[in-house]
Known about the structure:
116 residues; mainly alpha; Rna Polymerase Sigma Factor, Chain: A; 6 helices
Amino acid sequence: xxxxxxxxxxxxxxxxxxxxxxxxxxxxxxxxxxxxEQTEIAEKDLLEANLALVVSIVEKHPSDHIHILDLIIHGNxxxxxxxxxxxxxxxxxxxxxxxxxxxxxxxxxxxxxxxx
Length: 116
């Protein structure tokens, strides 16, 4: 059966990605910071494993002015920025590092939507 609610479809697809263990996160971090032949795969894995982080942050910022899917898009864009910036950071934890980018992007989107 075809699901017509794009948020439900997105959440369903996202839930198929298993959470990353701390060991896996550290391995991805090593490849990203080394900028070796596994960097692109490590960035993709880190990105996919943290999509749920975006949703959890979006859920803390309900808005009558912007659709939840739009907030998820803003959060995912920020997550991609965080993955790119992580290589040059000295952060120990990617989720904590990325949360700052995601929070800022979502808060900006909510504020901007109120002013329209």
